[in-house]
Amino acid sequence: MGRPGTRKLAVLAVSAAVVSMGAAAPPAATTSKTVTKVPVAVGYGGAVSSVDADASAAGIEVLKHGGNAVDAAVATAAALGVTEPYSSGIGGGGYFVYYDAKSRTVQTIDGRETAPLSADSDLFVENGKPLAFADAVSSGLSVGTPGTAATWQKALDEWGSERLGTVLRPAERIARDGFTVDDTFRSQTASNETRFRYFPDTAKLFLPNGQLPVVGSRLKNPELARTYEELGREGVDAVYRGDIGDDIVKTVEHPPVAPASGWNARPGKLAEKDLAVYRAKPQAPTRTSYRGLNVYSIAPSSSGGTTVGEALNILEKTDLSKASEVQYLHHFIEASRIAFADRGRWVGDPAFEDVPTGQLLSQRYADSRACLIKDDAVLTSPLAPGDPRHPAACGKGGTAAPTTYEGENTTHLTVADRWGDVVSYTLTIEQTGGSAMTVPGRGFLLNNELTDFSFTPANPAVHDPNLPGPGKRPRSSISPTIVLDRYDRPVVALGSPGGATIITTVLQTLTEFLDRHLPLVDAIAAPRASQRNAAKTELEPALYDSDAKKQLEAIGHSFTLNPEIGAATGVQRLPGGKWLAAAEKVRRGGGSAMVVDPAP
Predict the structure, then answer these.
(1) Where do the annotations place L-glutamate binding (predicted)?
(2) Domain count along the chain
(3) Residue pLDDT, tens place only, 337-388
(4) According to the annotation, is 88 in a ligand binding site?
(5) Per the residue annotation, which of 148, 357, 410, 537 is the catalytic one?
(6) 214: domain range?
(7) Residue 169 counted as domain residue
(8) Helix H segments across 515-559?
(9) Quick check: 497 and 583 in contact, CB under 8 A?
(10) What is the pTM of this model?
(11) Where are the beta strands (DSSP E) in 390-458?
(12) Is 499 annotated as a binding residue?
C-alpha cells in the first residue's frame, strides 16, 4: 500500500472540515480486551510507545488500518484521555513534534493552554499576597484555555491522513466499554481523593459508589465516550465555539463544588471569547548539534528544547563515553544546574517576552558556561544566570532566582509509521488530577496549567518572564525530542512526563543512550538524578543508596530522595525498515511498547 497523502490545507479556523484521504475506518469492536504491557518491542510497519497498553493498542490499530504516525498519535492521545485521565485529556494541552520522512524535516505545534484575556500579573494574588498553591490548584483560577483538541485537529490537517472522527473511535470504545484499573490508577486516585470529593461530578466518575476504584475492576466513562463522539462528528468547533466549550466555561466560572465540603473553589476568568480566539501554533523546532547528530525539540513557550539543548552543548566537549559513572553524573548534574539557571531568567512565552532562543542554543554561549564546571568542586545553587546575548567566559553576571514549582504529572507517547514518519508528543493537564474539576456531563477533568506561572516574581530584583498575562502561555518544561543523523534520518525519538524533571529525564536518557551506549529500554530504565538549580539534587532510590552518591558527596554534592522521576517512552529506527519501541519497565506501573508486525 502506498504512503497516504498528507493534507496541506489553508485552515482559517481550527475546526475546518476535512476529508479523509486514508484507509477505511477501523471496524468497531464490541468489547475491549485487556492488553498485556511489555516495555520493549521490535518489528515492522510502525511502532507505538506510551504508558498504557490500551492506548498503545489504539495507535497500533490505526497504523494497521493504513493510518500514518500523526493519525496514530492522535488516536493514542485520545485513548490516554480515557485511561490516563489524571494526566491528559481534552481539558488540557501539550506540545507535538513531527518528523516528515518524505521531506526529512521536523515541525512542531505549540498546543499550550493560555491565560484568559482578562488575566493580569496578579492572577494569583489575593489581598496583596500570593495564594497558597493548594488553594489555587483546585479552583477555576488555575484553568487555562485547553489546547489539546486544537492540537489534534491542526496535526491532522497538516500531516495526517484520517478524519478526527475516525481516529477517535478506538478511544470512544475504551471509554464506553471500560478499562482495567491497575495499582497505579488506584494509587493516583487515592492521593487525590480528598479534593476529588470536593466536586460531585469528579467523585461520581472516579470514586464509584463513593469508594476508591478496585484494582482489576473496569472503569467506564460513557460521558467521555459521548463527548468524543460529538467531537468527531462536529469537529473542534464543539470545544472552541460550541456546547462542549460552553460547559467548560460554566465549570470554570461557577465551580461545581459540593456545598458540604466547605471548599472555597475560587471562580476563574475563562470566557467564551478565550476559547474562540485560541489557536494551536505551528512553529519551528529548536535544533542542537550533538556528537554529529541533530537534536530537535519544542521551542518556547516550552523551555524544554532550549534547556535540554543548552545542557547538551555544555556537555559536547566532555567525552562521557569514557567517563566513570561518578564523572558522568557530576557533569550531567552541573550542566543541568547551569541550564536551569538560564531557563529561569530568560524563557517565557515569546509572544510576550524577548526570549533569546538562538543565543541560548549557541555553542559559543554553552562554552562560556561550561567552564564553570570543575571536576573536583560543585557549583552553588541557586546559580546566577549568564547573558546569552553577551557571553563572558565563566560569566555569572545575573541575579540568581530559584526554580519555581511545576506539577510532576503529564504523559508522553512516541509513534513511528511504515513510511518513516515519527511523532514525539507530550500532553498534560498539569499535576495529577489537574484542577480536580470534571466538566459535568462531559467526562473529562480540566487542567490547572496556569499554576505553572510564577504567582509573584521568583526574585523581585529581576524581571520574571513567567508572570501571568492576558492570553499568555505559561512556561513549560515539556521536551518531546527527535534525533536525526547527518542524513536527516531518525535515530531516536523520546520524551517524558514529570514537570520540571522532564528536562533532566530527557537529557539523562539521551546521554545514557547516545554517550553511554545503553540499549534504549535500559537508558529509559536507568536510575535518575534531577538537578534544577536547587540546593540539593534529587535521586531515585537506586542512586540514593549507591556508592556513587557517596563519592559525589565527597566533592560537595548534596542529595534528597525522590521515589520516582519521570516515565519516558521512545522509538528507535533500526536497519531495514525495522523499529524498536521502548517504555518504562517499572515506573508508573510500567509502560507499553508495541509494533505493528514483529516479522517483516
Answers:
(1) 112, 452, 476-477, 499
(2) 1
(3) 999 999 999 999 999 999 999 999 999 999 999 999 999 999 999 999 999 9
(4) no
(5) 410
(6) 40-284+403-598
(7) yes
(8) 520-525, 541-544, 547-554
(9) no
(10) 0.93
(11) 411-417, 422-428
(12) yes
